[in-house]
# Entry
Amino acid sequence: MIYTMVVVDDEKYSRDSIVNIVDWNSYEIRIVGIASSGEEGEKIITSLRPDIVITDIRMKRMSGIEMIQRLRANGNESFFVIISAYEQFDYAKQAMEIDVVNYLIKPIKKAELMKTIQKIKGEIQRKINYGNFHDLLYSEHQIKEFETNRASLPKADWRGYYIIINSCCISGVEDKIKVFDILKARNNCEYISFVDDGIVLISAEKVENVLGRIENLKSEMGDNRIFVGISNICADYVNLNLQMYQAARYSFYAKTSGEKFFCDIKNVDDREIKKKLNQEAEKIISTIQKCDRIQLSCELCAFKEYIQREQPNPVRIEMLYDKIVNKLNELMENCGISMLDIVESVDEHDFMNKSGNCFRIDILFPLIERIAVKIINRIIEYRQKTENSNIDEIIKYIDEHFTDDITLMLLSKKFYIKQSYLSGLFKKKTGMNYLQYLTEKRIEKAKILLVNTNMAVYEIALETGYSDPKYFSQLFRRLTGETPQKYRNRIFGRSGTDTEN
# Structure
């Protein structure tokens, strides 16, 4: 199969670099268009509808982001790769929002680009295969009619089966057809559909007969990790869908195989369990915010043990999974952390996209910890940079205004930092508390004035921020071991009285 590609960049050197980076023909890719602006790119892509588009992000008049947004709005389904000389979170975030395959930083690395291209080729092939398979099943088995008119089912004892199977076993068209042939009933009086993380089967046949075919599926596919969520007998699709979905969620606890009937799910007042789950989730989120990796590991371990012991409805856990991922995304955004810096593998990508592939007790918790630790490390780096920047700015302000009436509370309000936190941050940076630092700055200034001016001691006290000359003299003596006047006399080699003027 030949894949088509368009290159969009307003810099000739960049366009030529992409065109010549590899022998595209050897990768079954034909460059069908080259554009030097977003406007030209939009016209070419609209006309040719290429499989792949590589575009710069910053171009005059129309950016790569704007071009893709306009194309998407008009129904374009090309796979886009953005290249940029700017590694900025805002750009990466915008790219993710418009479903860009990858965001690459110039200069482009050949290996990284080709890895992205290979991924796109695989997605295109899967899309073609699934489209063919989808049409095949819908035309042969009339599922389309059922899907469009599923508010009520024909009168029968219908049950829904949500079959979760290792996705790698049914990744291709041939495998899906094989699965379909094994599961379908002889009378064809049932409906089968493939969904993201499994298979939906609706049948009026006896449960043992359906489970027998599922057992055959295990043997034929060579995979024992199959879990089935089974609904009660229902007269309408809404209840079937709800029940088999909830029952299937119990695969969260299954390490191997098994089945769960909806009627076996405890129908109890679980307000206390819900409260406990929320409390545990809040502890995990709080620990991540505090950047405490050791405590995070302890909290996750305790949470997992509680869930294994109580086995609450996994739908509740799924809601918390969603909540934790949303919070992680919020933390990343607040600290300017790019998703590209965190997500390095397929399972991590699935986790951040709340995929059902991660919803297993033995998979979910290690992923939460792995992702959270990466984010914690980035937050620590971010805070260190921010803290250093803030405290340097505060110290500069003190050095320029130390003779004014500036208190720790005033600085806290001015720089929007909690007073207690600022106090600790200041000591960490300077090795002394705020008052010590301020006093030393003022006394050093007083020494300079005592030596270089004829100002009286009380005038110097006022000049360095002290309205009480007596208190100023006491501080000066405490830090230097002598009064201001004795200090002046000693510097000039004079003897005289210790009268402070």
